[in-house]
Amino acid sequence: MISALSIRRTPERIVCLTEEPTEILYLLGEAERIVGITAYTERPAHAKKEKPVVSAFVGGSVERIKALKPDLVIGFSDVQADYANKLIKENLQVVIFNQRSIAEILQVILMIGRLVGANDRAEALVDTYVARINTFKANTPAVRPRVYFEEWDDPKISAIQWVSELISLAGGENIFANRAAGAASAARHVTSQEVIAANPDLFIGCWCGKKLDHDAVYARPGWQNIAAIQNKQVHEMDPAIILQPGPACLTDGLDALASLIAGATPESS
Prior knowledge:
- The protein is an alpha/beta fold.
- The protein contains 11 helices and 11 strands.
- It has helices spanning 19-27, 47-50, 62-67, 81-89, 102-115, 119-138, 161-169, 192-198, 214-218, 227-230, 247-262, and strands at residues 14-16, 34-38, 53-55, 72-76, 94-97, 146-153, 156-158, 173-174, 189-190, 202-205, 234-236.
- Strands 6, 7, 8, 9, 10 and 11 form a 6-stranded mixed beta sheet that branches. The chain has a 5-stranded parallel beta sheet with strand order 3-2-1-4-5, sandwiched between helices.
- α5 packs antiparallel against α6 (119-138) and α7 packs across α11 (247-262).
């Protein structure tokens, strides 16, 4: 006779290679399943005190991850493809999400909820975000400042899709919205001449990995006639609340964008 099989209905030991699944699992009340996180985890703030750090973003200790005996590893984007491949070769179960839009972020929350058997809580969480989004949509201002969101300075990289969508929700107009859907950063490269021609009312610097150099931005050749420069509307955003395609950008990130955009309308400049 074949003995009864012991089947895990949901993963019990999860390693998160990026911050978003960690934040999502905490919000769903499923943090006890997490056995390893990335060094770039900032939300929730106490996660690093409670969970071992086992990876960076594009790499980490495969042996250390294996030693944790995870039954699921969750990552994000094609950038982690090589890293994920190494883990798969070690016979680990790996899921890589590739969310690029607000809708896809919400779908990932629902999928993670299903993975851990927290469907109802995931649905309720998504409903709260949808309600916030609808509130912002209902209060779209008549005047929409032109926004240049810069993810990197050399080469200059404009906003990714979910950031572009959030700018619109927050009452602004991304001057490079037509490039936002480019999954690879190269598709979102822009030149100084293009920024000058678009004449944004607001500059938001969000350089992932280093602080915004305000003086260098103000001193860029040819930028002195840009409205954002003339009106001193050069601001910095924390990448942790806007460049992570998870709950953070839908809450603190959206609120921060709305505040900056409200202060940069042509009428208040």
